[in-house]
Amino acid sequence: MESHAFKPSSSYSPPQCRQFTLSEIEHATQNFDESLVIGRGGFGKVYRGTITYGEISLDAAIKRLESGSNQGAVEFWAEVEMLSKLRHSHLVSLIGYCKEGQEMILVYEYMRKGTLADRLHKRRAPLTWVRRLKICIGAARGLDYLHTDTNIKPRVIHRDVKSSNILLDDNWAAKISDFGLSKIGPTNQPSTYVNTLVRGTFGYLDPDYFQTGRLTRKSDVYAFGVVLLEVLCGKQAVDRSLDEEHWGLVRWAQDSIKEGKLKHIVDSALRGKISPKCLKEFSLLAKKCLHSHPKQRPTMAEVVMGLESILALLEKTDSTLHSKLSGRRVLRFLFPFNRENSVGGTSLQSLDRYLCNVGGEDRIVHRFDVNTIVYATENFSEANKIYQGCLYDSMYKGRLQNGHDITITQYSDARSYEAFEF
Q1: Does residue 4 lie within any of the structural domains?
Q2: pLDDT for the residue 407
Q3: Percentage helix, strand, coil for the chain under 3-state DSSP, each rounded to 5
Q4: Cα–Cα distance between 77 and 97 in angstroms, integer?
Q5: CA angle centred on 370, ends 272 and 268, rounded to 5°
Q6: Strand pairing of 18-19 and 330-334?
Q7: In b/e form, how buried is each residue of 153-171, taking b as 16+ CB within 10 angstroms?
Q8: Would you state the pLDDT for residue 47?
Q9: Is cis: bond before 154, omega within 30 of 0?
Q10: For residues 92, 94, 98 and 102, what is the CA-based torsion angle, rounded to 10 degrees?
Q11: Same domain, residue pair 82 and 96
Q12: 3-state secondary structure of 76
């Protein structure tokens, strides 16, 4: 069985930040060719390009700031200075920058899988629960590094944590990006906050920071709690298609949970694939991050530990189930079929011949009708359900009319089953 254990991203270390000339940037982007645009916003455009760095060529994301953008010269230099000092496997690396005349350009390592927001909210293959957990762990580690690493003096408060600022590399490792709004944390104690004009993104903004102007590391924790809800629910932080009082994901999710509808807020692509224990622990962690009192929120180090424990729980649950089933020969298979007696366009007669060929001498492979499975499980009664989790949708114990005890795995399409002998 494939391990779900979290694996850090590769040890590849991008080159140190350097200054590029405008002509180098123009060459890398084919003179800012519109066909190379991979992102755009109030700041300007992001181009995919190939940048030459010494004797090597690197794929890069090249962010060209418009002169009238929200990200001005102060934030530009803040990001250059910040990322020049920060090196971590879960932070997007700044390869270099260009400042000539009115041109302000940042050159980052290119992240092929795009943003977490795109993966959650655009029409793409849904992320599995395991992958979502690992992405959350990686992003949390990046934030924990900013908040606590002893090599960073003073510490950093990101101030704009959101799913669109979490990028994914080839291996789905999460990396925190966009440090234009980041603030240097206090070096003096006991002061633990920075007084600042309120900046951030609606939907992720810490209510306490919004009301008081006191920015703390716990403001990042709050925003990360919103990201956790996005990951669980598959909904955007702000959805204006809902009633106005439920535009914000946090309010909608919290109200649903209070009404006892925790299972109903789960992304439809994940329903039946998260064990009740994993779901409870994950939602509880998100709730702690979103506590109205900043001091009651966990640190990012505690968030990392919480997420890792949930991943370990998931792996333990799946491993236990796998060990129970290992060594058992497959006794029966039931495949989904339609009225035309075909499976995905394949006739059942052809499928029967195939199963006979692959079954081998010591395996008996038969096709049951649904009524037999319904009888064996007493119509999929809750009393016969023995597992519901991340590896399978649901598993039931049952007994055939001939007395054989079996376990039956029901998959997400509700028409596919596997039966194993006890």
Answers
A1: no
A2: 74
A3: 35, 20, 40
A4: 10
A5: 20
A6: unpaired
A7: eebbbbbbbbbbbbbbbee
A8: 95
A9: yes
A10: 40
A11: yes
A12: helix
Alpha carbon distance 254, 235 (integer Å): 14
Name residue 229's amino acid.
Answer: L
The CATH number of whichever domain residue 88 belongs to comes to: 3.30.200.20
Q: Which residues sit opposite 183 in a β-bridge?
A: 157
Instruction: Please give the torsion angle defined by the CA atoms of residues 211, 217, 220 and 221, in that order, rounded to the nearest 10 degrees.
Output: -100
Q: Cα separation of 38 and 73, whole Å?
A: 23
pLDDT along the chain (422 residues), means of 10: 48 68 95 92 85 86 79 77 84 91 91 94 88 97 88 78 95 89 51 58 91 92 98 92 79 90 92 89 96 96 96 75 51 44 48 49 59 82 68 69 74 48 39
Query: 362 is written with which tokens?
Result: 């010591």
Residues with Cβ within 8 Å of residue 106, at least 6 apart in sequence: 62, 63, 65, 76, 79, 80, 94, 97
For residue 367, the model assigns a pLDDT of: 64
Where a domain ends, among 323, 350, 365?
Answer: 323
Q: Which domain holds residue 349?
A: 327-421
pLDDT attached to residue 342:
44
Peptide bond into 298 cis (omega under 30): no
| Residue 63 is assigned to a ligand binding site | yes
318 & 343 share domain: no
C-beta of residue 23 within 8 angstroms of C-beta of residue 38: no
Give the residue carrying structure tokens 């622990």. 281
SS3 105: strand
- How does pLDDT run across 165-185, given as a tens digit for each residue? 999 999 999 999 987 666 655
Work out the widest C-alpha separation in the chain, in whole angstroms. Answer: 84
* Separation in Å, CA 41 to CA 55, 68, 180, 302, 404: 33, 12, 14, 33, 62
Task: Name the E strands within 141-190.
Answer: 156-157, 166-168, 174-176, 183-184
Q: Which pLDDT belongs to residue 322? A: 54
Whether the pTM exceeds 0.85: the reply is no
Catalytic residue annotation? 160
**Does residue 104 come out as left (phi exceeding 0), alpha (psi in the -120 to 50 range) or beta?**
beta
Domain of residue 377, CATH code: 3.30.200
Contact 94, 106 (CB under 8 A): yes
Helix (H) or strand (E) holding 366: none
